[in-house]
Structure prediction request, 376 residues.
Amino acid sequence: MKANKRSMLGLDRGQDQVAVDRAIAELRSGRPLLLTGGEGAALIVSAELLDAAFVDKLNAFADGKARLTLPAARLRRLGAADRKVPGTVALPVIDMARIEQLVLKVEGRIDAPVAIASAIDISALELAALSLIIPALVIVPVDPASVADEPLVCVEVTAINSFRKSQVEELSIVGRAPVPLEDAPKTEFVIFRGGEGLRDQVAIVVGKLDFDEPVHVRIHSACLTGDLFGSLKCDCGDQLRETVRWMAENEGGILLYLDQEGRGNGLSNKMRAYRLQSEGWDTYDADEVLGFDLDQRRFDFAAEMLKQLGVKRVVAMTNNPVKIGAIRHAGLEVQASRRVLGRPNKHNVQYLESKRDRAGHYIDMDALMARAAPND
Prediction:
């Protein structure tokens, strides 16, 4: 009878997504969780959030079978120069000092053979990405029956692997209202629930649009330091404000403001990367030290936002070819693209050059430097 009531109320729908949501919370809190599927089951816990008291318990439970799972980017920094896929390093003893060297230290080096990552390892790294933590996991193979009495959140590999797609499918508008801006008085904010990790996303509709014509669109990832505080380390705030101003002065457009701080790495990891940059590291090299590739962002949910707003054809306001490709891949026509220039200064020139040279952004440095203030 209870099962029938659950079915009638629809409570069984979306249980995989609920399990992933709970797993994200556990991982971010440093608590272990049970991951099942593929070749078995394993306890997984964030390597960066381990504490000494828990390590002692985990060592007794692991019986020498634990492993450290790392992404290809971090393995390359550790000395595996040509590594393109994730791998694992055996942990006969879970040693916090050794893990810190392998996960966080700039001078860390591989000290043991790297094994091929399993389906559980790869799904654990995907869960780490969703959780916005350092992509490094301590993994202990287990028999699920041996932890049946433990209060563990359990999640399946298939649920993690399908989570992002499910969030795109469930994306919906939850609120909208006119919000006049300083440079764009005829502006509406449209709030979507969904996308990355069920966080709210924002579409800023500037002016009165004709959806039978191509719509100017900018996909803008949130940058707390640049957008809100005017950081000189990037050009994000300039691009944001100048795009809205241009749209207001011309035929209007839509700016998607997406919760993807730090190229999808999260604010805490962005600050870690900034610390490395202050020591002389290039922006992309700093990310690689932390285990991140060039860009962790995904834009499939951005394209879905545009479709729900009625957009069919786009003039993409971006310097990033990846964004243009993502819009096309999602089935929208990109009729043209338009560059968006910020203002260079002595703090961000290297960053802008790196985006051009290493990530293929369309940046004309001569045109950009012409916009620099005299003292910069």
